[in-house]
Amino acid sequence: xxxxxxxxxxxxxxxxxxxxxxxxxxxxxxxxxxxRVDDREILLKRQQKTFFQISGAGHEALLxxxxxxxxxxxxxxxxxxxxxxLCLTLGVTPxxxxxxxxxxxxxxxxxxxxxxxxWSSRALNIVSTSSATASQLLHAxxxxxxxxxxxxxxxxxxxxxxxxxxxxEVKFHGDEVxxxxxGEGSTSQGEFWEALNTAANRKLPVIFCVEDNGYAxxxxxxVSMPGGNISRLVANFPNFYFAEVDGTDPEASFRxxxxxxxxxxxxxGPAFVHxxxxxxxxxxxxxxxxxxxxxxxxxxxxxxxxxxxxRARLLREEILTEDELTALEHLLDQEVTAAAExxxxxxxxxxxxITKHVYSEVLDPTRAAFxxxxxxVSDPKPKTMADLINACLHDEMRRxxxxxxxxEDVADASREEALAEVKGKGGVFKLTAGLQTEFGSExxxxxxxxxxxxxxxxxxxxVRGMKPVVxxxxxxxxxxxxxxxxxxxxxxxxxxxxxxxCPAVIRVPIGGYLTGGSIYHSQSGESIFTHxxxxxxxxxxxxxxxxxxxxxxxxxxxxxxxxxxxxxYRETHDRAPYPGPDxxxxxxxxxxVRAGSDLTIVTYGALVPRSLQAAExxxxxxxxxxEILDLRTLNPYDWEAIAASVKKTSRVIVVHEDMLSWGYxxxxxxxxxxxxxxxxxxxxxxxxAMDTFVAYQPILEDAILPQxxxxxxxxxxxxxx
Length: 721
Ligand SMILES: Cc1ncc(C[n+]2csc(CCOP(=O)(O)OP(=O)(O)O)c2C)c(N)n1
Ligand SMILES: [Mg+2]
Description:
The chain is of the alpha/beta class. Helices cover 39% and strands 12% of the residues.
């Protein structure tokens, strides 16, 4: 009676799409195993031995059918929390699932960090998922793009000893497909449409599977979407293979996904499989569907339970007898009981390891290897920050074929033929100028106007071992990507207990002092990002630092937010000669801008030159000798340099452009208060923008943002304190 999953897979794949009796028994075994693991988790939760439960009950037929049509460890998977039966069929074991349910140290998906059903397996190419509905779809898109890139450029897969590539294994075959799934309610998320957009446009081998159980918690499908049928809404997307299928029928589901996979493998485009399944239980154990579904509706739905249907079919077609079914069920119970016992006895995670894998454990961007700071100047002509960022991008793309650059308007010209006649755009600030012309449209291309699309895809590229260096056009418009940055990019490594990482670089023009930039082209807000663990934040104040820090950002193994102050892009005072292709500056190392003995200013970005002006005047007009530290990177930041300077001068002002309240300075000031209380002779001062937005009229902008005069006044006040 027992049939190994692999043999079922082989014979099913070779056959016509209908399942033999033997295979149907195996499908039933997997479906029932999935249900029994759910039921065991529910029991354990009621016994307070686990802490959360959400089941896949009602989705089993669709998912076992789907998994049999796909290749574990070969194809890639971005599933969601209902996909227990898919993962079981791919090869995740009940024991592994229950280890996650109890939060064991040996939970291979997350080491006790994620709720149950948050799948992850490096061996099976199941990429760790979050709880956020639909955000995984963009990762699947980026993953498919990366797979295609490696198959066209296999040389790019080569490892390199001196950067992130030493730790980013690359696997590709050329015809792998990427599975991603979601509930019908989650199709209301913008990221769903952003993912379909790019998958269709680039003909990517992604299977989008909508598991339609008719409800999003308590919200029925007709409320989630006009017309109540997602297939109808997406029908006009070009290049897709579409299938709408009875997801309670494993055979029909298998056939749909098999055809979808064949279409994708042939390079024809993405596929959309819409499976109508049912929700056998409430949304989760925290929900009670009797509160919003009538008894009649619940009873009618229960008639479509795929386990009951297949069991009846096995009896009806005399494939198994009642006794044989009972024996099978008994065997599964034994298997699940053994798995639960094992999981309950498993070691618990160590509190001492909580912060492990917040950042890369293998490549520290503060380390000396990044401290070349050896400029090899061949041309002494000073270059702007814009020039030297652009130069760094050129250098690194030459050195590392895994780098791709995309974002809004970053290409020279999407219509390549135009480049014979025109100069090219290369970004609204021209920071990416010439990259497409030198490296081609496969490596440098425009994204749709959708910021979550940019960051979500970057994550997908990076998990495959590529290095996306993407641009968000203005910091003011980073917010649609915030969900991806906060809930996905920065946390992937930690939530998978180090199994996955996504060391993408996001370059973002930021800041005001533009005269006329107004609310939507002058925002700061770096402290919102320094509050996110897992993300490195860089904020250079001059051309040379921008060049050396961007190089480290690109070579390192963590995700990096690289903030470029627009006002500093083309200033005269911060220029430097091109320092050569290996000039790198480690993170977490402040620059001493000006040595002084009376007072310390801790600052960064556009406030570095403004603080310097104030310090020069303080010297001339008041004989006060100010020391200035430019932090250069905000996470990590150079506490040692701050502490040494504060101990020397005993007076300190933290100066930034961002609003004062809850700003970056608050954290630095608080830490000085906590750790250096005995070293200061005056209150720690902060200077920042007024707690409002940046206005258009220059008189208002000048008053809102900190000016050299503001800093000078604070210096004098504090010295006299
Ligand atoms: C972005 C986001 N918003 C809200 C939630 C809370 N939430 C979890 S599941 C869910 C309903 C999802 O319904 P559907 O997409 O139909 O999937 P189903 O659970 O029915 O399989 C909601 C609102 C979430 N996890 N993520
Ligand atoms: Mg649903």
